[in-house]
Protein backbone atom coordinates (compact mmCIF):
# COMPACT_ATOMS: atom_id res chain seq x y z
CA UNK A 1 0.00 0.00 0.00
CA UNK A 2 1.50 3.28 -1.08
CA UNK A 3 0.80 6.70 0.42
CA UNK A 4 1.04 10.10 -1.28
CA UNK A 5 2.88 12.48 1.05
CA UNK A 6 4.24 15.03 -1.40
CA UNK A 7 3.05 16.57 -4.66
CA UNK A 8 4.87 18.72 -7.17
CA UNK A 9 2.53 19.24 -10.12
CA UNK A 10 2.74 21.89 -12.78
CA UNK A 11 -0.76 22.41 -14.16
CA UNK A 12 -1.62 24.73 -17.05
CA UNK A 13 -2.24 28.26 -15.75
CA UNK A 14 -0.70 27.42 -12.36
CA UNK A 15 0.23 30.59 -10.47
CA UNK A 16 1.30 29.17 -7.12
CA UNK A 17 1.05 26.18 -4.81
CA UNK A 18 0.45 26.11 -1.07
CA UNK A 19 1.48 23.02 0.90
CA UNK A 20 -0.71 22.82 4.01
CA UNK A 21 -0.50 20.28 6.81
CA UNK A 22 -2.56 17.75 4.86
CA UNK A 23 -3.61 19.39 1.58
CA UNK A 24 -1.65 20.80 -1.35
CA UNK A 25 -3.52 23.64 -2.99
CA UNK A 26 -2.76 24.72 -6.56
CA UNK A 27 -3.88 28.17 -7.72
CA UNK A 28 -5.00 28.07 -11.36
CA UNK A 29 -5.08 31.53 -13.00
CA UNK A 30 -6.18 33.12 -9.72
CA UNK A 31 -9.66 31.73 -10.36
CA UNK A 32 -9.73 28.03 -9.47
CA UNK A 33 -8.13 25.94 -6.77
CA UNK A 34 -7.05 22.35 -7.29
CA UNK A 35 -6.97 20.88 -3.79
CA UNK A 36 -5.15 17.58 -3.41
CA UNK A 37 -5.93 15.67 -0.20
CA UNK A 38 -2.61 13.93 0.42
CA UNK A 39 -2.11 10.96 2.75
CA UNK A 40 -0.17 13.12 5.22
CA UNK A 41 -1.49 13.06 8.77
CA UNK A 42 -1.08 15.76 11.39
CA UNK A 43 -1.72 15.82 15.13
CA UNK A 44 -0.95 18.55 17.68
CA UNK A 45 -0.25 20.79 14.63
CA UNK A 46 2.69 18.55 13.64
CA UNK A 47 2.82 16.59 10.38
CA UNK A 48 3.77 13.00 11.25
CA UNK A 49 6.69 11.38 9.39
CA UNK A 50 4.68 8.72 7.52
CA UNK A 51 1.60 8.95 5.34
CA UNK A 52 -1.52 6.83 5.84
CA UNK A 53 -2.60 4.86 2.73
CA UNK A 54 -6.08 5.83 1.41
CA UNK A 55 -6.50 8.62 3.97
CA UNK A 56 -6.56 11.38 1.35
CA UNK A 57 -9.08 9.52 -0.78
CA UNK A 58 -11.36 8.97 2.22
CA UNK A 59 -11.22 12.56 3.42
CA UNK A 60 -11.78 13.97 -0.04
CA UNK A 61 -14.74 11.70 -0.71
CA UNK A 62 -16.39 12.38 2.67
CA UNK A 63 -15.95 16.14 2.23
CA UNK A 64 -17.35 16.04 -1.34
CA UNK A 65 -20.38 14.11 -0.11
CA UNK A 66 -21.14 16.59 2.70
CA UNK A 67 -20.49 19.62 0.51
CA UNK A 68 -23.10 18.26 -1.91
CA UNK A 69 -25.51 17.54 0.97
CA UNK A 70 -25.41 21.14 2.29
CA UNK A 71 -25.71 23.31 -0.84
CA UNK A 72 -29.20 24.38 0.24
CA UNK A 73 -27.73 25.90 3.43
CA UNK A 74 -24.92 27.96 1.94
CA UNK A 75 -22.86 28.19 -1.26
CA UNK A 76 -19.61 26.23 -1.19
CA UNK A 77 -16.43 26.29 -3.19
CA UNK A 78 -16.64 22.81 -4.78
CA UNK A 79 -17.05 22.53 -8.56
CA UNK A 80 -15.84 18.98 -9.28
CA UNK A 81 -13.88 15.97 -7.99
CA UNK A 82 -11.84 14.88 -11.05
CA UNK A 83 -9.88 12.34 -8.96
CA UNK A 84 -10.79 10.53 -5.71
CA UNK A 85 -8.10 12.60 -3.94
CA UNK A 86 -8.83 15.95 -5.61
CA UNK A 87 -11.49 18.65 -5.39
CA UNK A 88 -11.48 21.57 -7.79
CA UNK A 89 -13.34 24.68 -6.81
CA UNK A 90 -13.79 28.42 -6.76
CA UNK A 91 -10.93 30.45 -5.36
CA UNK A 92 -12.08 32.41 -2.31
CA UNK A 93 -10.35 34.86 -0.05
CA UNK A 94 -10.45 32.99 3.25
CA UNK A 95 -11.33 34.51 6.59
CA UNK A 96 -8.28 34.05 8.87
CA UNK A 97 -10.39 32.18 11.43
CA UNK A 98 -11.80 28.70 11.87
CA UNK A 99 -15.36 28.41 13.10
CA UNK A 100 -15.30 25.63 15.67
CA UNK A 101 -18.67 24.48 16.96
CA UNK A 102 -19.05 22.20 19.97
CA UNK A 103 -22.12 20.26 21.02
CA UNK A 104 -20.38 18.46 23.89
CA UNK A 105 -17.67 19.24 26.43
CA UNK A 106 -14.64 17.20 25.42
CA UNK A 107 -11.15 17.32 23.92
CA UNK A 108 -9.22 20.57 24.49
CA UNK A 109 -12.34 22.29 25.90
CA UNK A 110 -12.64 19.59 28.57
CA UNK A 111 -8.90 19.75 29.34
CA UNK A 112 -9.27 23.53 29.90
CA UNK A 113 -12.48 23.09 31.93
CA UNK A 114 -10.88 20.44 34.15
CA UNK A 115 -8.03 22.85 34.91
CA UNK A 116 -10.56 25.42 36.17
CA UNK A 117 -11.28 27.47 33.03
CA UNK A 118 -14.94 28.57 32.87
CA UNK A 119 -14.86 30.75 29.79
CA UNK A 120 -13.83 29.77 26.26
CA UNK A 121 -13.69 32.34 23.44
CA UNK A 122 -15.79 34.73 25.52
CA UNK A 123 -18.48 32.09 26.22
CA UNK A 124 -19.19 31.36 29.88
CA UNK A 125 -19.51 27.66 30.72
CA UNK A 126 -21.82 26.34 33.45
CA UNK A 127 -20.36 24.98 36.68
CA UNK A 128 -20.44 21.26 37.47
CA UNK A 129 -20.17 19.91 33.93
CA UNK A 130 -18.64 16.49 33.31
CA UNK A 131 -16.48 15.21 30.46
CA UNK A 132 -18.48 14.44 27.28
CA UNK A 133 -21.60 16.19 28.63
CA UNK A 134 -23.92 17.79 26.08
CA UNK A 135 -24.05 21.59 26.20
CA UNK A 136 -27.54 23.12 26.67
CA UNK A 137 -27.04 24.32 23.08
CA UNK A 138 -24.02 24.13 20.75
CA UNK A 139 -21.38 26.82 21.27
CA UNK A 140 -19.09 28.47 18.71
CA UNK A 141 -15.46 28.72 19.84
CA UNK A 142 -13.43 30.19 16.95
CA UNK A 143 -9.68 29.95 16.57
CA UNK A 144 -7.16 31.91 14.56
CA UNK A 145 -5.68 30.15 11.52
CA UNK A 146 -2.03 29.61 12.39
CA UNK A 147 0.94 29.42 10.07
CA UNK A 148 2.49 25.96 9.67
CA UNK A 149 4.31 24.88 12.82
CA UNK A 150 2.35 27.29 14.99
CA UNK A 151 -0.70 26.46 17.08
CA UNK A 152 -4.16 27.83 16.36
CA UNK A 153 -5.25 30.11 19.21
CA UNK A 154 -8.71 30.62 20.69
CA UNK A 155 -10.30 33.96 19.84
CA UNK A 156 -13.60 35.53 20.89
CA UNK A 157 -16.22 37.09 18.62
CA UNK A 158 -15.38 40.48 20.19
CA UNK A 159 -11.67 40.09 19.34
CA UNK A 160 -12.50 39.00 15.77
CA UNK A 161 -14.56 42.16 15.27
CA UNK A 162 -12.04 44.40 17.07
CA UNK A 163 -9.19 43.10 14.89
CA UNK A 164 -11.26 43.49 11.72
CA UNK A 165 -10.94 39.80 10.80
CA UNK A 166 -14.63 39.97 9.78
CA UNK A 167 -17.22 42.76 9.79
CA UNK A 168 -20.23 42.44 12.15
CA UNK A 169 -22.42 41.65 9.10
CA UNK A 170 -20.00 38.97 7.84
CA UNK A 171 -19.65 37.43 11.28
CA UNK A 172 -23.43 37.19 11.64
CA UNK A 173 -23.51 35.17 8.38
CA UNK A 174 -20.61 32.96 9.53
CA UNK A 175 -22.45 32.21 12.78
CA UNK A 176 -25.71 31.48 10.98
CA UNK A 177 -24.07 29.12 8.46
CA UNK A 178 -21.99 27.42 11.18
CA UNK A 179 -25.03 26.59 13.30
CA UNK A 180 -27.14 25.45 10.32
CA UNK A 181 -24.33 23.22 8.97
CA UNK A 182 -23.76 21.72 12.41
CA UNK A 183 -27.47 20.96 12.73
CA UNK A 184 -27.47 19.24 9.31
CA UNK A 185 -24.32 17.30 10.21
CA UNK A 186 -25.97 16.25 13.48
CA UNK A 187 -29.06 14.99 11.64
CA UNK A 188 -27.02 13.02 9.08
CA UNK A 189 -24.84 11.55 11.86
CA UNK A 190 -27.93 10.47 13.83
CA UNK A 191 -29.15 8.50 10.80
CA UNK A 192 -25.86 6.55 10.96
CA UNK A 193 -26.06 5.88 14.71
CA UNK A 194 -23.52 8.61 15.43
CA UNK A 195 -23.34 11.85 17.41
CA UNK A 196 -21.54 14.81 15.81
CA UNK A 197 -19.67 16.11 18.86
CA UNK A 198 -17.70 19.03 17.45
CA UNK A 199 -16.37 20.18 14.11
CA UNK A 200 -14.76 23.11 12.32
CA UNK A 201 -15.73 25.09 9.24
CA UNK A 202 -13.73 27.50 7.12
CA UNK A 203 -15.27 30.26 5.06
CA UNK A 204 -14.12 32.72 2.44
CA UNK A 205 -15.45 35.31 0.03
CA UNK A 206 -15.79 35.16 -3.73
CA UNK A 207 -17.25 38.12 -5.62
CA UNK A 208 -18.59 39.49 -2.35
CA UNK A 209 -20.42 36.27 -1.43
CA UNK A 210 -19.49 34.11 1.57
CA UNK A 211 -18.67 30.50 0.64
CA UNK A 212 -18.01 27.42 2.73
CA UNK A 213 -14.47 26.24 1.91
CA UNK A 214 -12.18 23.30 2.52
CA UNK A 215 -13.41 20.06 4.08
CA UNK A 216 -16.59 19.44 6.06
CA UNK A 217 -17.65 16.77 8.59
CA UNK A 218 -14.59 14.59 7.99
CA UNK A 219 -12.93 12.68 10.86
CA UNK A 220 -9.98 15.09 10.56
CA UNK A 221 -12.15 18.14 11.17
CA UNK A 222 -14.81 16.56 13.40
CA UNK A 223 -15.32 14.28 16.34
CA UNK A 224 -18.08 11.66 16.39
CA UNK A 225 -19.35 9.43 19.20
CA UNK A 226 -21.38 6.27 18.71
CA UNK A 227 -24.96 6.99 19.88
CA UNK A 228 -25.39 3.46 21.22
CA UNK A 229 -24.06 3.29 24.75
CA UNK A 230 -23.41 7.05 25.02
CA UNK A 231 -25.77 7.54 27.99
CA UNK A 232 -24.50 4.46 29.88
CA UNK A 233 -20.85 5.41 29.39
CA UNK A 234 -21.54 9.00 30.38
CA UNK A 235 -23.41 7.93 33.54
CA UNK A 236 -20.48 5.70 34.57
CA UNK A 237 -17.87 8.32 33.69
CA UNK A 238 -16.35 5.98 31.10
CA UNK A 239 -14.62 7.15 27.90
CA UNK A 240 -16.95 7.36 24.90
CA UNK A 241 -16.48 5.13 21.88
CA UNK A 242 -15.54 7.66 19.26
CA UNK A 243 -14.94 8.04 15.57
CA UNK A 244 -12.32 10.73 15.07
CA UNK A 245 -8.60 11.29 14.79
CA UNK A 246 -8.45 11.29 18.62
CA UNK A 247 -7.10 7.69 18.60
CA UNK A 248 -3.99 9.01 16.80
CA UNK A 249 -3.55 11.75 19.43
CA UNK A 250 -4.02 9.18 22.19
CA UNK A 251 -1.37 6.87 20.66
CA UNK A 252 1.04 9.83 20.50
CA UNK A 253 0.30 10.90 24.10
CA UNK A 254 0.73 7.31 25.33
CA UNK A 255 4.17 7.43 23.70
CA UNK A 256 5.16 10.75 25.29
CA UNK A 257 4.39 13.14 22.42
CA UNK A 258 2.12 16.20 22.56
CA UNK A 259 3.74 18.42 19.96
CA UNK A 260 6.06 20.18 22.41
CA UNK A 261 9.44 21.32 21.08
CA UNK A 262 11.74 18.89 22.86
CA UNK A 263 9.51 15.85 22.20
CA UNK A 264 10.18 13.21 19.54
CA UNK A 265 7.43 11.68 17.40
CA UNK A 266 7.31 7.95 18.31
CA UNK A 267 8.34 5.44 15.66
CA UNK A 268 5.53 4.77 13.17
CA UNK A 269 5.90 1.07 12.43
CA UNK A 270 4.15 -0.55 9.45
CA UNK A 271 1.68 -2.08 11.93
CA UNK A 272 0.80 1.35 13.35
CA UNK A 273 0.40 2.84 9.85
CA UNK A 274 -1.81 -0.07 8.73
CA UNK A 275 -3.95 0.13 11.87
CA UNK A 276 -4.49 3.89 11.39
CA UNK A 277 -5.46 3.27 7.76
CA UNK A 278 -7.94 0.58 8.83
CA UNK A 279 -9.46 2.90 11.46
CA UNK A 280 -9.93 5.59 8.80
CA UNK A 281 -11.73 3.08 6.57
CA UNK A 282 -14.01 2.22 9.49
CA UNK A 283 -14.66 5.95 9.98
CA UNK A 284 -15.46 6.40 6.29
CA UNK A 285 -17.93 3.52 6.19
CA UNK A 286 -19.72 4.62 9.37
CA UNK A 287 -19.93 8.28 8.42
CA UNK A 288 -21.09 7.73 4.84
CA UNK A 289 -23.01 4.46 5.30
CA UNK A 290 -21.18 3.16 2.18
CA UNK A 291 -18.47 0.58 1.57
CA UNK A 292 -15.05 2.10 0.93
CA UNK A 293 -13.63 1.25 -2.50
CA UNK A 294 -9.82 1.44 -2.58
CA UNK A 295 -8.38 3.16 -5.64
CA UNK A 296 -5.29 1.83 -7.40
CA UNK A 297 -2.24 3.21 -5.53
CA UNK A 298 0.49 1.92 -7.87
CA UNK A 299 1.23 5.45 -9.14
CA UNK A 300 -0.98 7.95 -7.36
CA UNK A 301 0.74 11.13 -8.56
CA UNK A 302 0.57 10.07 -12.21
CA UNK A 303 -3.13 9.19 -11.88
CA UNK A 304 -3.96 12.54 -10.24
CA UNK A 305 -2.00 14.52 -12.84
CA UNK A 306 -3.78 12.75 -15.71
CA UNK A 307 -7.25 13.25 -14.19
CA UNK A 308 -6.73 16.91 -13.30
CA UNK A 309 -5.19 17.74 -16.72
CA UNK A 310 -8.17 16.14 -18.43
CA UNK A 311 -10.56 18.21 -16.28
CA UNK A 312 -8.72 21.51 -16.81
CA UNK A 313 -8.77 21.03 -20.58
Q: Work out the radius of gyration.
A: 19 Å
Q: Biggest sheet: strands, sense, closure? A: 8 strands, antiparallel
Number of strands: 17
Query: In percent, how helical is the residue content?
Result: 25-40%
Unreliable runs, pLDDT <50, ≥5 residues? Answer: none
Shape: globular
Number of distinct helices: 8
Average per-residue pLDDT, rounded, comes to 94
Q: In what range is the share of β-strand residues?
A: 25-35%
**Element pattern in H and E:** EEEEEHEEEEHEEEEHHEEEHEHHH
Helix-strand category: alpha+beta
Distance between the termini: 31 Å
Molecular structure report:
32% of the residues lie in helices and 26% in strands. It contains eight helices and 17 strands. The strands form four sheets. Strands 8, 9, 12, 13, 14, 15, 16 and 17 form an eight-stranded antiparallel sheet that branches. A hairpin with a 3-residue loop joins strand 1 (14-19) and strand 2. The radius of gyration is 19 Å and the shape is globular. It starts with 13 loop residues before the first strand and ends with a helix. The mean pLDDT is 94.
Write the SSE topology.
Layout: E1 14-19, E2 23-28, E3 32-37, E4 42-43, E5 46-47, H1 55-68, E6 78-83, E7 86-90, E8 93-94, E9 97-104, H2 107-114, E10 119-120, E11 123-124, E12 134-140, E13 143-144, H3 157-162, H4 168-191, E14 194-206, E15 209-213, E16 222-226, H5 230-236, E17 242-243, H6 246-254, H7 270-288, H8 300-312
Antiparallel strand pairs: 1-2, 2-3, 3-7, 4-5, 6-7, 8-14, 9-12, 9-13, 9-14, 10-11, 14-15, 14-16, 16-17
Helix pairs in contact: 1-7
Amino acid sequence: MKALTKTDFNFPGQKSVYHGKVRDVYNINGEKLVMVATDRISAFDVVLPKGIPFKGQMLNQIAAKFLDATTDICPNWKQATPDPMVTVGVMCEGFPIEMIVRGYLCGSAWRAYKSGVREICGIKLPEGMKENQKFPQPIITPTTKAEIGEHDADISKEEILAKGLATPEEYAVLEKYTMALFLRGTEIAAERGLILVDTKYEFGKHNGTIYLMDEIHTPDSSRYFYSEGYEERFAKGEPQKQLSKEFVREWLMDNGFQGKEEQQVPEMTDEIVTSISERYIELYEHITGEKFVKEDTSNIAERIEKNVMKFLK
